[in-house]
Request: fold
Amino acid sequence: MGNQVSRGRGSMKQQEQLKAMEQYAKRVLDSDASGHDWSHIERVVNTTKTIAEGEGANLFICEAAALLHDVIDDKIVQDPADALKELKKFLTAIEVTPEEIEAIESIITRMSFKNHQENQELSLEGRVVQDADRLDAIGAIGIARVMCYSGSTGRPIHRPNMKPRKQMTAEEYRNGESTAIMHFYEKLLKLKELMNTDYGKKLAKGRHEFLEMYLEQFYAEWEGKR
Reply:
């Protein structure tokens, strides 16, 4: 689709603010090689808008959070707290209201999978953006992103004797020993049941089935049977 996300309705000022957020996100993420690059943001934004319209959510807050959800991620930036301060300063400078900044911050600091065991409460807008982000983590694109991220972090593809980790803390999930294939069991295969919206659940079903087919083929090839 090129380098632009498609725009929904909104005031001229909001459209200008979203354009500035788009440029901000590009500066932070455009050189990423872990699967959290600008293309990921484009996909999440457009899925977010589709879900938001169906759910009657605030389109401005949804799109803003979708654009910015990875710019404070600890996989991307060295100091998430400093990154959040910089982001809030930027949003204030482009005249996003304090209430809107609070709504955006609440979403992007709570929506990640590593926080889901802490039962983080999300607004309707947060649930919309979370579904869009999780949909991009499953299916064919999700598999490509797992392999991309694993390569960028030095994580091996597969170790046959390794078992999925359970009851992990956020720190253990992020930094403990794992493999690309274990990530299917520790995250990807769980996402279908964690979808918030009807649209998210509908798309997740087919993408989840693709993950299962991929794993079946992967194991057969690994053992030299196909």
Q: What stands out?
A: The radius of gyration is 18 Å. The chain has a mean pLDDT of 90. The chain is about 60% helix and 0% strand. The CA atoms of residues 3 and 39 lie 8 Å apart.
